[in-house]
């Protein structure tokens, strides 16, 4: 399968980004819609991955100017393609382009090992967010395991 990875602003791609996040976070994970979509979406830089054959959006993620990475979501049927790594690599490239020294994510506990493999380290204690236990994970952008990722703008 072939995929296109694009860096997009919310105002241009909101319907596509929402499609992915609604399927993953609202339908699968039962996150309330008013929690999933927040004011930060308008300020964030988003990554969007589309299936080249169907032209359907299949993955997304966002980064804020504070370095907070979040809302990484991949449609269930495409998870074996490891599109999460493409999204993360794209977000880390954006962080470097913005000259951010560090990025962080509020990771679900079952994903902590995944982020450790990508050069993130736990910071602080476990906390609750949207009714789920989370661990803040941080990474210096110069240490981040960024694979080659070609972005369309």
UniProtKB/TrEMBL annotation:
Signal peptide region: none
Source organism superkingdom: Bacteria
Residue span, N-acetyltransferase domain: 43-139
Keyword annotations of the record: Transferase
InterPro entries linked to this entry: Acyl_CoA_acyltransferase, GNAT_dom
Entry-linked SUPFAM superfamilies: Acyl-CoA N-acyltransferases (Nat) (SSF55729)
One MF term in the entry's GO annotations: acyltransferase activity, transferring groups other than amino-acyl groups
Protein name: GNAT family N-acetyltransferase
Protein species of origin: Thalassotalea euphylliae
